[in-house]
């Protein structure tokens, strides 16, 4: 006998079809932000913060 629809199948299908592409898009956006040339000065300043003596 075959199950018609179970909660496990519905949740798994929902996660695979919606959340996976969403998180991939978020990851790509974060990488693009980090590598954008305009943000280089911000990241360089943040990288040198631990080395500063105040």
Short description:
The chain is mostly helical and 54 residues long. It contains 2 helices and no strands. The protein is elongated and about 70 Å long.
Mean model confidence by pLDDT: 84
User: What's the number of structural domains?
Assistant: 1
* Class by alpha and beta content: mainly alpha
Q: Describe the largest sheet.
A: none
Q: What is the succession of H and E elements?
A: HH
Terminal Cα separation, in Å? Answer: 73 Å
β-strand amount: under 5%
Helix proportion of residues, in percent?
over 70%
Global outline = elongated
Give the tally of β-strands: 0
**Which consecutive residue ranges, at least 5 long each, have pLDDT under 50?**
none
Computed CA radius of gyration, to the nearest angstrom: 21 Å
**Can you count the helices?**
2
Give your account of this protein's structure.
The protein has 54 residues and is mainly α. The protein has one domain (7-49). It has helices at 7-35, 40-48. The N and C termini lie far apart (73 Å). The model has no long low-confidence stretch (mean pLDDT 84).
Map the helices and strands.
Layout: H1 7-35, H2 40-48
InterPro entries: Cbb3-typ_cyt_oxidase_comp (IPR008621)
Protein name: Cytochrome c oxidase cbb3-type subunit 4
Transmembrane segments: 16-36
């Amino acid at each position: 006998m075959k199950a018609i629809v179970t909660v496990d199948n519905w949740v798994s299908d929902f996660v695979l079809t919606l959340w996976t592409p969403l998180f991939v898009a978020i990851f790509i956006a974060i990488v693009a932000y980090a590598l954008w040339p305009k943000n280089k000065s911000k990241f360089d300043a943040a990288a040198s913060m631990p080395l500063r003596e105040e």
